[in-house]
Amino acid sequence: MGKIKLVATCLFGLEKLVGEEIDALGYERRETIDGRVYFEGGVEAIARANINLRCAERVLIEMGSFGAKTFTELFDGVKKIPWELFIKEKDAFPVKGHSIKSDLHSIPDCQKMVKKAIVERLKQTYKTEWFEESGVKYQIEFFILNNRATIMIDTSGAPLHKRGYRTEANLAPIRETLAAGLVKISRPREDVILWDPFCGSGTIAIEAAMIMTNTAPGAKRSFSAEKYPWIPARLWKEAREEAEKNRRPDTAFRAIATDIDPETVEIARDNIRRAGMWDYINCFTKDALTIRKDDKRTTIVCNPPYGERMDTVRSAQKLYKDMGKAFKNLSPWQIYIITSEEDFENLYGKRADKVRRLYNGMIRCNYYQYFKRDDAKSDRKG
């Protein structure tokens, strides 16, 4: 089998980081759109991408792409795909997907049409009228954008943000993939402490330690494509061995994870242990507003509470005002804050040097980056 067309999906705003991760693995990018990076590689790319991509949500095989303004065009396009090369007679092939800015906007109807087309194709190969679907599961996904359908097979199974270390979470956890993105944007370095003063489940600090030790995020979990018989088991074994060989456990990097709630800190500590990052993270109870600067170079990366209801909105806004006053004394530390509060800069009392639009799940957020010294003039345009 030669090169395979693949798709890495991600949260909006992380496409550039996912593209850079694909480049680092040595694969060729084909196209990037909102929430998706298209690339290609050999069969081993399925294993290596799933195990190593930090900011992607899924890795899918692109089976076909074609114009589909009508259900007839959708049916014909799907039926032309050689499904029999992948799906055997007893295998399962459920269908799900999305349609954006397209004439075919009914998801249930699109699901039925894609399923029907695959069934008709496989009927011709296996000479049967009924499929029991008790074997290997191939999750089929369709994505219709501007009347163009892309048909894919998911290789990840559980989304890639499920690393396996976070069995307990606080009320508003940040996705591991987004946490990794926040850390990467903050440019972590061995000689600079990374401190998350609203650590919650400990995710930001854990992802930072995994990045700095070059620990593959998917090394300890399984993927649906490991059951696909046409992908040799040795490729998964080799990909995991490569990931282990590339680890850098002797890094001098250290992170601090603190939270005002002792019970939350205990959850974070358990997650840190499960992630194998205990040697790199100091986790303890502390009020973020009482942090005092010392002579150690430090970068704060945090996801403070943001209000989704009126009562919590007021408390969150007060917190941002208090943060602005308290963190003002931490210069020249660099500070990175993600929040959904659009008026954050006014509440915080300082204009960010750079703002990046990101999404925490479906919540639209801004990532406010303060990296210039107070005596340096900000040249950020509105």
Descriptive overview:
This protein is an alpha/beta fold and 382 residues long. It is built from ten helices and 14 strands. It has helices spanning 15-24, 44-52, 71-79, 107-126, 176-185, 203-212, 233-245, 262-275, 310-327, 344-348, and strands spanning 4-9, 28-33, 36-41, 58-67, 95-100, 140-145, 148-154, 193-196, 255-259, 281-285, 298-302, 334-339, 354-360, 363-370. Strands 2-3-1-4-7-6-5 form a seven-stranded mixed sheet. Helix 3 runs parallel beside helix 4 and helix 5 (176-185) crosses helix 6. The chain is elongated and about 75 Å long. The chain starts with a strand and ends in a 12-residue tail after the last strand. Mean pLDDT is 94; it is low at 377-382.
What percent of the residues sit in helical stretches (DSSP H or I)? 25-40%
- What is the CA-based Rg, rounded? 23 Å
Structural class: alpha/beta
Terminus-to-terminus distance: 50 Å
Largest sheet: 7 strands, mixed
- Record the strand order, biggest sheet: 2-3-1-4-7-6-5
Give me the strand/helix succession. EHEEHEHEHEEHEHHEHEEHEHEE
The fraction of residues in strands falls at 15-25%
* CA-based shape: elongated
**Unreliable runs:** 377-382
